[in-house]
Structure prediction request, 191 residues.
Amino acid sequence: MFKTLFNSRLIVLIFIFVISLISCDGRDRKYMNNTEILQENNLLNKFSEQVKFVPNSPVAINTDTILSNGFNVKINYRSIENNAFYKVTKKEKDSIIKMNYKNFEAHIEVFKDDTPINQSTINKLLFSEFENASFSNQAIMQYVWVDHNKSSDDVLYLNTSFNIPETETFKDFIVAIDKKGTIRIEQNPTC
Prediction:
């Protein structure tokens, strides 16, 4: 008797389970498009948001410059992977694009007649006293290069440029390192 009662309960439970599965076929969503379904579940913003990184992979440029005046400069210019700022732009159909611009820095080693005179890092913090916070927060270091023409026997000149992405706003700076390793920074007056 218990076996038949158990079997009949099992059949009833299976029948209820099958009916519940059949009734959840999504008929109410049949005529809804994907956007409406995502809006209904408050997921549209998550799927319409794109995140892009510039540059999209790590960048490292190493240069070793030997000048005839006795200066030797090693520059390790690289992107900083955990230091980026983003700009949000809206595109068609309310899609959002977050552009993450990675900051850059350059580690430099300067030698005069094979004697190390300076090891330092050039990044935008070094130039913060020259710029307002708005420019400093949005600017990216573009390049660091040796100014061969301006360098002399006593002073090595490096140039660097900062740009706000997607704009024509930029600033150039001159980094002068004398033969004792002292650094002097000034904004390039021609820019």
Q: What stands out?
A: The longest helix spans residues 2-23. The mean pLDDT is 83. The longest strand covers residues 71-90. Strands lie at 49-54, 60-66, 71-90, 96-112, 115-122, 140-146, 155-163, 170-178, 183-187.
